[in-house]
């Protein structure tokens, strides 16, 4: 790990003031790198982590799931549909442009057009500039999740992203899985600036010398992220001292990290649900609820958690984890192979059928091993699975096209709220609103859709909780998808890396605040 002084440190030393912790360079190994530098191109954990490096949200979650100010210093409710945000003054984008209300309004309007984010921002009708450092966010009706939602409003540099590229394209275009100006040329207000990026090889960041947050304890000057897909290789790199911080540490490798000198294992309970979707649009038998139920009865979630996850996860029977409003404690896993066989026979598929399945091999903990286990379990009820696993950079384009009969998808609630799971995973697909954006099961239930929309307008917490619990019961009875487990989280770090302070259950550490000691 190299040590050096950044511009801020040098200036303080010249003034006779020294940092108690010297600036540091660090290398981090991940299972995959972000697919884009555009914070609105893809709603994924890697994109959100990148966003917290290069950009800043209006507010963000703390480790304890409270809300803290970021680009918005304070806020107040004007009426039941309007929240006013007072923005920080003196904030600079990486381009040198000044941050103002115009940038937030521009960003809001872009989010409303983003295929992946417009469903999150659908409850909002407008962002209105009050003055250069004040905006009003207006909702279509009473909405209980305003602050939750604006944790995803990472302000972009409207002047920098305006205009045309040399080939005549709009610099502000959101292009899914394509090369765009925004996907390769970031300008945010975040703690780091992009220094170098080669997709699939490495991403280099350098500290933003004009970063507004002078209270941040972070002392990392240069940060290099390298993708290492193989779990064991990633751990070996940490143990050899080639990297300083890794994510994730698979359950199979955690004892290696625990027992090694000079490194530590850092863990958090997780709320990301891992599931399989059954594509009713592509495979006709999945339109039969008995077939979907048979698949659910055939999958041994407890066995996957115990044997493949080594206990490092929580068996799931629904989308919503315990502790969230809307978790339904009455719902239990359905594992019963004989019941599954009876349902297949009742539906007219005693001899089974053949299906295609896709899963990533470097996105979720043990993802390809889980897929292989599910394939073996389905074979017991005569479902022959043609499984293909792909690196995440190739997986997402295939998933977005729903190019298989069964597809793996993990989801962490973007708003730390139960309704978000359904908004993206189980509500009827709607390109206009963005609802069901990641519903490759093509599951559609008008009762569920109406229930979620109503819950999103309900400000009575008790009533809202009961509505969301009922939504989970509908999905459970309909066997809308195959819930597997909520995966826990694990990182490995050198002992001098203050990982504990920056990791969180959201699975995007605030690396701008990372402290590395001598």
From TrEMBL:
Any Pfam family the entry gives: SBP_bac_5
User: PROSITE patterns under this entry?
Assistant: SBP_BACTERIAL_5 (PS01040)
Tell me the ranges covered by the Solute-binding protein family domain, including all copies. 67-426
Q: Which UniProt keywords apply?
A: Signal, Transport
Cleavable signal peptide = 1-23
Report if keyword Signal is assigned. Answer: yes
The UniProt entry, under PANTHER family, shows: OLIGOPEPTIDE-BINDING PROTEIN APPA, PERIPLASMIC BINDING COMPONENT OF ABC TRANSPORTER
Q: Which family does it belong to?
A: Belongs to the bacterial solute-binding protein 5 family.
What's this protein's name? ABC transporter substrate-binding protein
* Taxonomic source organism: Oceanisphaera ostreae
